[in-house]
Amino acid sequence: MREQYMRTGEGFLLVFSVTDRGSFEEIYKFQRQILRVKDRDEFPMILIGNKADLDHQRQVTQEEGQQLARQLKVTYMEPSAKIRMNVDQAFHELVQVIRKFQEQECPPSPEPTRKEKDKKGCHCVIF
Question: Phi and psi dihedrals of 87, rounded to 5?
Fold first, then answer.
């Protein structure tokens, strides 16, 4: 079932809890699985260190999260769902990453010249 979600997803939040080292250590495996399912070398993803409000219970430092993000070549953010810190920003960032990726994959078609418009009568682009 997980692979079906991976096949249909346009982008992913790779979420771990900063209070759980085990969840952090699973991220690399999930990222590799997504790339394998998508049959790609890169795909829109953001690394999320959740529960950033629980500083006193941290098992993963912000530096470790940033280092893994550099290794995976993704953006790193630390939100807290409990206090609604950076939650909306994380989703906005993911949408921007997806759009940038899609533009690189399928750049917009150039506008037809005036002569081409006159010949065909209309201009249609099919994606």
Answer: -70, -55
